[in-house]
Amino acid sequence: MKTLVVCSGGLDSVSLAHLAAETQSLTRLVSFDYGQRHRKELAFAEAAAMRLGVPHHLIDLRAIGAALTGSALTDNIDVPDGHYAEETMKITVVPNRNAIMLTIAYGIAAANGDEAVATAVHGGDHFIYPDCRPAFAEAFDQMQRAALDGYADVSLWTPFLHGTKADIVKSGTEHGTPFAQTWSCYKGGETHCGRCGTCVERREAFHLADIPDPTVYTDPDFWRQAIAEKGAR
Predict the structure, then answer these.
(1) Does the annotation flag 123 for ligand binding?
(2) For labelling alongside 219, which of 57, 129, 148, 191 has CA 20 to 30 A away?
(3) Which of 131, 128, 135 is nearest to 6 (CA)?
């Protein structure tokens, strides 16, 4: 299938782009600037597009992002430390973010004759983010088919939907993802902080996949403490 990949520049979406390049007909990467504090991730998405030889569409959603208040990713609110599954991580939810981005991605796909829109949502996201869950993916796909009925036939491709972050690391390894050229940290510093939910989840995934993690973390050992504290609750 001619496949558009929604790519943030993170480990998951860049791994998805490499998977699509090898198993589908990758047509383009689409990224979104919604005013996220970790905007530096977008440079990694652009680099992935160049590496894979496809166009990179960067969509400016900063005005929309400014209206989606209350998230640590877009407001002046501290990004919490700790494991992703903790209640505190709900402060990183940007309301309806995936629904907004996917709607635009479907429009771009339809306009360009693409057959699928791919997104890298996975099982580890389900607890925190409602628009990463299987029920959302199924309903959204049906809604978009109705929205484009008679104009275009575009499906939603979510190969990681029921998998884990460790599964994505394994897939990325199999399909040549350069993990060092991806960005996960929500704090957007010079290096990955090693303490926020995305850093902890990233480090844990490499550990569970038994694959060396090339990422440079400011605090490379915090993930063990975060996991131990989660297990003690």
Answers:
(1) no
(2) 129
(3) 131
Query: Is it the case that residue 77 has pLDDT exceeding 70?
Result: no
Residue 33, annotated ligand binder?
no
Q: Is 188 annotated as a binding residue?
A: no
Is 14 part of any known ligand binding site?
A: yes
Write the single-letter amino acid at 93.
V
Give the count of alpha carbons within 13 A of 39, CB side only: 12
Residue 71 vs residues 48, 88, 169, 197: alpha-carbon distances, Å: 27, 11, 27, 14
2-232: which CATH number, 3.40.462.20, 3.40.50.620, 1.20.1530.20, 3.40.50.1240? 3.40.50.620
8 is in an annotated binding site: yes
Residue 71 assigned to a binding site: no
Q: Consult the annotation and say whether 199 binds a ligand.
A: yes
DSSP classification of residue 196: B
- Check the annotation: does 132 bind a ligand: no
Cα(97)–Cα(156) distance, integer angstroms: 16
Return the closest-CA partner of residue 168 out of 123, 130, 226: 123
What is the tens place of the pLDDT at every residue in 122-140? Answer: 887 656 778 888 999 999 9
Task: Enumerate residues 6+ apart whose C-beta is below 8 A from 121.
Answer: 98, 129, 132, 133, 137, 158, 160, 161
Q: Is 155 annotated as a binding residue?
A: no
Is 171 labelled as part of a ligand binding site?
no
Whether this prediction's pTM lies above 0.85 is answered by yes
Q: Is 15 annotated as a binding residue?
A: yes
- Reported confidence tier of residue 193, pLDDT bands at 50, 70, 90: very high
